[in-house]
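Appendix B. Chain record.
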Amino acid sequence: MLTAKDDHSGAAVDWWFMYKVPGGVRFKKGEKTNGSEYLYYDLPSQKPLGLSPYNLGSGPEGALYHTLQQLYADPSPSVGWIFYNDEYPYSMQEGTWPEKSDWPPNVEPKIYGPETREKDRGHPVDHAHNGHCKGILAFDVETDTAFWLSHSTPRIPALHVPENEHFFYPEYTDTYAQTFICITLKDVKAACDIAKVMSNQHDPQVFGCRLPDEVTKDSPYEALWTLAQGSLPPDYGKSYSENHAKKEPADITFQSKGGKEFRLLAKSGAWFDDFWIDLVEPKLGVDLRIETWRRLTPTAMLPGEDADGDGTVDYGDYDFTTTYKGRQFHHEFLAKDGKEVVDEITNIDLGELKDSNGDPLTGYAWSYTKDHAKWGISEELEDREKLDDRQGTKRDWVCVADMNRMTSQEKRGGGAICFHEPDLWKGLNEIERVSGKIT
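C-alpha cells predicted for this chain:
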C-alpha cells in the first residue's frame, strides 16, 4: 500500500506540504541556515505551518524520506513508478549511469562524452523542450493505492545510489528555497487521470520508470503506460506558434484517499500564453500573489501580449519595481481580461511562524532571488489597498506549481495543483511580502 508518509513517525497521511529554506540566511549573529531546513504542514498533526525539527539530507527521517523509502524497501512486483525532472539527476559515483532498463523506452538520452567539460562528463544531456516539471507518480495495482509527489528541486531523486543515501537531499540543492507537495491519491484510476494530463500537457522529461506486468498499452492503466514511454516534444517557439493552432489547457479535479479535492490546471508549450496570468487566475476567478523564479532572462519581467495583441505590458494600479543586478523588475500584472491581477511576492519572512520548540523564526527572511519555489495564494480585491497589510481571504486558495512566471516558459509544459486549505493559506499569507524590501 502506497501513501504519503508524515514527518514525525512515517505514519500514513492524506497529504503533506514542505517548503525548504535557502542556505545562507543569517537568522542570528554568527548563525546561518544550511539550506536543508524546511517548513512542514499536514492536517493530522493539527499544527500550523512551522519549521520541522528534521533536516533534509541528514539521515533516515522526515516526510520526504519516509514517503520515498516505500519505493526502495524491496517493493512488491505490483508497485510501479514514473520519475520525471526537467534536469536529469547526476546519478552515479565516478560519472557512470545505471542500466538501460531505467530509461523510458522511447527516450534514451545522450551522455556527455570525454570531450566535454569535466563536470558534465558521464551525465545525460537534458532535452530543452520537455516540460518544466519535477516529481514522481507511484502506484500499486494490487492494493489500488498511489501517491503523487510534485516538487521544484532539480536533479532529484537519483535512482541508483548506495543504500545509506536513499533520498537523502544532496548538498548542491542547499542554495535555493524549494517546495514539495505529496498527495495520497484516491486510487490508481486517479493516478491514470493525472498521467493522461501530464502526457497531453506537461510533456515531462521521464528519467526512470518501473511498470508492473499489469500496466500495458491495452490495459485499464494505459495512461500510466503511455507516460512511462517518454516523449520528445518539438520546440514550441515562434516558428511553431506561427504554423500551429493553440492547444487548450487542461482543468481537472481529482481526490485524495481522504476525499479532499484538488484541482490540476496544466498547459502545454503549445498554448503560447503566460501560465499564471492567463490560465491559473482566470480559471480560479481570484487575484493571486505568487512566488516563482523570475530573474534569468531579459524577458523575465514581462508577461505575454495584452488583449489588444500589440505587445504592450499592462500593469496594475499598485505596480512597483525592484532592482536586481542593475535591471528593474515589475511586480504587478493584469490578466488579458483586465480584471485579475498577479502580485509577485518579492520577499519571504518567517518571523510570524515558529520552530518545533515554539520559538518564533525571527531573522529567517530572504528575497525572491534566493527562492526557487513555485506557489501562489489567493487574495481579496480590498486587500490590495495596502501593499504591506493584506489580511484574510474568503477563498483560501493555495496553489503549488511547476511553472515560473517567465516569458521563456510560455513554450514549455507544466501545471499547478490548487486546493482550499485555510490553515495552510494563513501560514503562507503570514510569510509572504509584496514590497520592495524585507520588512
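Further analysis of this model is presented in Appendix C.
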